[in-house]
Amino acid sequence: MKKDITCRDDIALMVSVFYKKIANDTVLGAVFNGEKKIDWDKHIPAMCDFWENALFQSGNYKGNPMNLHQHLHKVMPLNEVHFRQWNILFIETIDELFSGHYALLAKQRALNISQIIQQQLFAGKQTR
Ligand code: HEM
Predict the structure, then answer these.
(1) How many Å lie between the centroid of ligand 1 and the Cα of residue 49?
(2) Distance, CA 7 to ligand 1 centroid (Å)?
(3) What is the mean pLDDT of residues 63-88?
(4) Cα-flanking dihedrals φ and ψ of residue 33, to 5°?
């Protein structure tokens, strides 16, 4: 029986496993390691803060993911295929490592935010 996500160490594991998959992925690797090369040393701790806040209301995440993705989309256009792959890898990561209330909540939050970002980026536009 896998354990649930209960603390920052669990989140740090989830984030590192997830972004290793992303970096090696044929669809998403190019976005993260492409032209606008992402600074992993900043992104990983920021994502830990984000998830700690999203799951446990730690209050330590102050960023604006909506603006960041809108900006990213201008530099490196994203489409539904990118988001579908992001969702698949996220769910896969959680299911490999954890199970329980917070594991489920993380998957629900991720899919929900994914949907909201896509609505904002692709509103009224043909994406494929
Ligand atoms: C195709 C899908 C996605 C791609 C390619 C993508 C890519 C990126 C990149 C490159 C950044 C860094 C932006 C920067 O620092 O300039 C970023 C930030 C972020 N992403 Fe995504 N993202 C995707 C989907 C999502 C989804 C579904 C979530 C939902 C949890 C998410 C959560 C975040 C957050 C919270 C940040 C901000 C971290 C911070 O404050 O520095 N992303 N994303």
Answers:
(1) 13
(2) 21
(3) 95
(4) -110, 10
